[in-house]
Amino acid sequence: MADRPMIASSQASPDKADTLRWRQAHESPLSWKQWRNLGDQFLHLVAVELRLLHKRSMIGMAWTLVNPIVQLVIFTVVLGRVLAVDTLYYPVFLCCGLLCWNAFSESLTMASASIVNTRYVLYQPGFRPAMMPLVFVVMGQAHFLLSLSILAALLVYFQIPLGWPVLALPLLLLVQGLLTLALAFPLAALSVSFYDTKHLLSVALRFLFFLTPILYATDNFPRVLQILYAANPLTHLIRGYRAIFIDGVWPDWPALIGVAAGSAIVLVVGYRFFEARRFRFIEDIE
Known about the structure:
- The structure is a single chain.
- The chain has 286 residues and is mainly alpha-helical.
- It has one domain.
- The protein is built from twelve helices and no strands.
- It has helices at 16-27, 32-53, 63-82, 90-112, 114-117, 131-157, 169-193, 197-210, 223-230, 233-247, 253-277, 281-285.
- Helix 2 crosses helix 6 (131-157), helix 3 (63-82) crosses helix 4 and helix 6 packs across helix 7 (169-193).
- The longest helix is centred in the middle third of the chain and has 27 residues, at 131-157.
- The two termini are 19 Å apart.
């Protein structure tokens, strides 16, 4: 996403006095009225960013469906037909992995650049920088919900019935959002002072894509590799989606609880790291 101010501003960069006033305004505790205002501001930011993301596009948010459909067709033909991957309902199997991965990688990429790409909003009165990573994680989750229509179409085509385990979907979405947000805060803070963060993240995501069971199943892998894949939290999320949509069973609750607990710990540490560096954003971003 290209660098652009989210809220237009004709003012010059703030001087030391402006920076001091900004720090004092953001160090004060929030009142109940301010919390309500932040909620309204958050919803406004999500709406604005969604409009900007699809600005001047002829089909708008429909592009959210184009990318996973193209990926699904290519991988189904190459792996399902040419390499003959022996997996039941392979297009559905593949779709579960791709949709989860796309939401995670898209959210993390946008959130990591959220402070750098929306620098002018930092000068707005009463703005809390921690909202920006959250805004982009919510956007990624919204795109994921929209792209579930592709999965629904495949379920109808293959005549796969949905059972009661589909009720676990909101919990899977919650764990996925928690994991993404936990990584988004420290990456957003690092991107301000360390420009190469986005390049390193891009390389890391490429490696992680092939180290996550998106295109293949790991059931017949050696035990050593099973342990390696179990250390990847995305493995348990993707298996959870496949469990409720393909197998019609409840997901592996102990594994998901472990992912949620680990994500919560990382979120606390990552948020504290973000908050410790937020008063340097104005100086570092100029």
